[in-house]
Predict the structure.
Amino acid sequence: MFMRKYVNREWFWLMDEQHGVVERSQVRQNGITRGSLEHRLESGQWRRLHWGVYAAFTGEVTRQATLWAAVRRAGAGAVLSHQTAAEVQGLADRPSSRIHITVPSNRRPAQHRPIRDVVVHRAGQIRPQRLPPWELPRTRIEDTVLDLVAAAATFDEAYSWISRALSRELATAGMLREALAERSRIRWRTLLTQALADAGDGIRFPLERRYARDVERAHGLPQAQRQARRTVGGKTHYKDNLYAGYGVCVELDGTAYHPPEQMWRDKRRDNVNLAADDVRTYRFGLVDVTERACDSAAMVAASLRRNGWPGRPHPCRRADCKVGR
């Protein structure tokens, strides 16, 4: 009697942890015979989600149950990764259309029986995030970011994952640098190293990185203070790029990188504070820091020099750049 109560208790814990999803070996371990399993499937009490994986309940299969079913089907050592890990870690804003799972490189769980709606990745070394047993196993947040970076089509897309992780405080630049150093092969290593160095200086969004690189550094402007704290009218504000000694500020707008609600907050903030603030503010968008980077640098440089900057800007590598000439 004691053993039966113990087994039942373990079973209920398992059902709770895995959102009602169970794998065939777990069924056997908890004393459910093959005949009993077949009866439950045929009667509709249970349903088969994948080969050897079952939903031990009726009703709607939740997203959590769907993810648990994919992990259990992939077998020992399997963890959520890429877009699906980003989903459960708060890095992605919506569920991925296909479930991404990484397994040890010596395993091929889908070799003979493909796993429906699941993309299986293989890795020589997997370092899962440390979690209690009732949480879905997943890659570490820093590895999730770098997996998505490696899969990105462009560097701007790749860096957008870094900016999300940093701005949402899911990872630090130091964490990402350490994870990057552990990878022997990854695309854009030099650019990623520079981008993470920029992140340490407060540059978190691709638009800010482009401004620092293509407007400021490329034309010899002084380095601005990133995310500089400033008090105006008794209220504290943060400036994207503040040239504090020269009364010049550059704010950056980009719907591709800044959430719309943040962009409108920025505009309202500037309208309220323009009269009270003695800082000349430029507001640049994506075109201003890419196609018109030279024109933007010339405008900022002119304001800096009027306000006492002793330096001189210089042309960038573009053949048609006229800054400083």
